[in-house]
Amino acid sequence: MIKVTIDDIEIEVEEGTTILNAARMIGGDVVPPAMCYYSALPGTGGKCRTCLVEVAAGSTKDPRPMPKLMVSCSTQVMDGMIVKNKTSERVIENRAGVVEFLLANHPLDCPVCDQAGECDLQNLGFENGKEATRYEEERRTFEPIDIGDHIKLNMNRCILCYRCVHVANQLTDQRVHGALHRGDHTEISTYIEKAIDNDFSGNMIDVCPVGALTDRTARFKSRVWFLNPMNATCECTKCSGKAVVWMFGKEVYKVTTRQDKYGEVEQVDGKPQWLCDECRFDKKDVSKWTIEGARHIDRHSVISQGHYEKPNPLDNKPKNIK
Amino acid sequence: MGRKLLLEHVDVPGIETYDVYRNHGGYKSVEKALKTMSPQEVVEEVQKSALKGRGGAGFPTGMKWSFLAKPEGVPRYLVCNADESEPGTFKDRYLMEKLPHLMVEGMITSSYALGANTSYIYIRGEYMFVLEILEKAIAEAYAKGWLGKNILGSGYDLDLYVAPGGGAYICGEETALLESLEGKRGNPRMKPPFPAIKGLYGCPTVVNNVESLCTVVPIINIGADEYLKIGTEKSSGTKLISACGNLVRPGVYEIEMGITVEEFIYGDEWCRGIANGKKIKALIPGGSSVPILPAHLITKTAAGETRYMSYESLSDGGFASGSMLGSGGFIVFDEDQCIVRNTWNFARFYSHESCGQCSPCREGTAWMEKVLHRLETGKGNMRDIDLLADINKKIEGNTICPLGDAAAWPVAAAIRHFREEFEWHVTHPEEAVKRNYGLLKTPEITL
Fold first, then answer.
1. Range of the domain at A244
2. A247: closest CA of chain B, how far (Å)
3. Which strand (E) or helix (H) includes residue A252?
4. Which of B365, B367, B400 lies closest to A135 in CB terms?
5. Which one of A7, A241, B67, B373 is least enclosed by Cβ atoms within 10 Å?
6. Is residue A311 assigned to a domain?
7. Which helix (H) or strand (E) element contains residue B406?
């Protein structure tokens, strides 16, 4: 075990832990935001640069500060490392810069975007961005395309986190989608607009932090904050069958994986509980699910302010209020 | 006349063929290394020579070699970075085109030093004709027994391949190069792990510039002690400079480190001054990504000392009043040239060549390009100049690979030294558009 200090809070972690995961063990404000890192998908991270932190001392052996800001999702902690996240002016300034970059080509069409309310970029912008943008140029635009029967791709909203590419690489049996072109014209697409038709490809909708990939069987049916998320299970031979069904009355509007407070899929014994496409897209009938109870959404966005889960009066500090 | 190590025989007719090259002392370094030296001794010799990487960053080659991990039973690779795409740099092309056997010889000697049995020359897609020249030289070397199994009876085997890229600047970044060589999209990898630990196909790999590997040949031939006598204390040896821009005689020159910048620009032996009798306005000494120098900082440093062609002298004054030797892409601007237009041109290049992986570079380079294009076409305002400086700060140091820095530095330096010109573009939008920048005026070349 090695000791690391993040924002003046000391914690002991195992060797090989990244700064981000060490911060998540502390929790609260010291956790840097992450848009591209996804713990259940090895190889993700390092791209969005929102999790930049300042390393004020490298280690006990070599206490020199690191000159550049480091990406916390990919930098491993050293014994005696001192990390500054919210306590560093430089981090706050540069993170606001990254948010500005991410929003530069983002259409800000939240009022008509199906992801609104459960969008990581909305939360990021609200918490770390500035009030106004200085970007006055024309934005890059693409036509939305259907990739398969179930998934809609709107590249305009994409922030190129490459999480979905890792889903395609790691979960599905054949990779049919990736990145085309380069620079700010980079485009996530399928090979010659081929349909994505794999048993687990629907998971790319869940990993997408923005509204670039949306569920065609559920989009525009309802705003997410009007729906009641319920933990549900079903018998499935392909996947774990553990899902969250989003209900309106007795109707199932959409089915997603169970996500933790960082928007990442829950893991049981180190196994990510991904959902197969059949459970996700075809079981829109409540009789096909065993409802376990209300889902606690522990994410500080508008959906956690919902009315479906009453705070426990015995608990002095309601968990869902930050 | 400075001493020449690489281009000594470049003008000999037929030097690109094996027989002529061999008659002029070719492949002697391979003989010397394989017959009289152990691999470790070759590495030590290069380390002793203090050869700095000629690709641009100037990292000591010998030190890079000494970092190479040597686990049992895992192959090691040497990859030559011939993806020369920095605007203003064309020295590697000249070397490979004129002296393909020097490249092959450098590869053999260096591969022997590193214990690599398979080596690659990754060449940019636009250099297809150079690829043919190299493949011909490699075939000749195989036929004469310099490549293949049991070279010179020493028991050392080496296979050498030339692999063309698709013509992307980012594939000159060493980890993106390795990705591309593996057949993937040329995106830079996260570091650490560095290629010396985990490189090509997950094996320890050294990636070196063409000129660095070619320079290994004279270092082995004459010995590190002799090599150290050439050049300055901190910059040993000779360097190829590809001079271009408004010069009377642009071209590739081999200089001994430590000649003055003034001599290089105005000397009869070198560039012979500024073309068409104009005055010099600015200089980019090391390829498009290094900071630009205004006229008063070219021949003298800010402290009033003479500026020399060497790593330490060109970077004297840091980024405030200095620059870098970089890759040796020496670009000279005369008084007619427009800095704003040039900065925009470079920004356009970096925006086009950004890989699109990390957000500051992907969005920032494109944003800078758009703002600079507005300024250049007379649609900018004063706010834009500060905005550019701020975007620079947000990109610099926050990206995965150095392309972000390379895109930010020239813009930052142009604003630092030529702010009035940017402001002039805002206050005189119509004149800014009408002005003829003389970009098409070529110098009268008299040889």
1. 224-305
2. 36
3. strand A251-256
4. B367
5. B67
6. no
7. helix B403-417
- A239 and A166 co-located in one domain: no
Same domain, A189 and A134: yes
- Number of structural domains chain A divides into: 3
Interface of A with B in 258-287 (CB under 8 A): none
Residue to mutate among A66, A101, A160, A188, with most B CBs inside 10 A, is A101
Phi, psi of A70 (to 5 degrees): -105, 150
The secondary structure of B195-249 as a DSSP string is: TTTS-GGGS-EEEEEHHHHHHHHHHHHH-HHHHHTSB-SSSBSEEEEEEEESBSS
Q: Is residue A319 part of a domain?
A: no
A162: contact with B, CB 8 A cutoff: yes
Distances (CA, A) of B280 to A288, B187, B256, B292, B447: 79, 38, 23, 13, 21
Tens-digit pLDDT string for chain B (447 aa)? 578 999 999 999 999 999 999 999 999 999 999 999 999 999 999 999 999 999 988 899 999 999 999 999 999 999 999 999 999 999 999 999 999 999 999 999 999 999 999 999 999 999 999 999 999 999 999 999 999 999 999 999 999 999 999 889 999 999 999 999 999 999 999 988 999 999 999 999 999 999 999 999 999 999 999 999 999 988 999 999 999 999 999 999 999 999 999 999 999 999 999 998 899 999 999 999 999 999 999 999 999 999 999 999 999 988 899 999 999 999 999 988 889 989 999 999 999 999 999 999 999 999 999 999 999 888 899 999 999 999 999 999 999 999 999 999 999 999 999 999 999 999 988 888 777 554 444 444 444
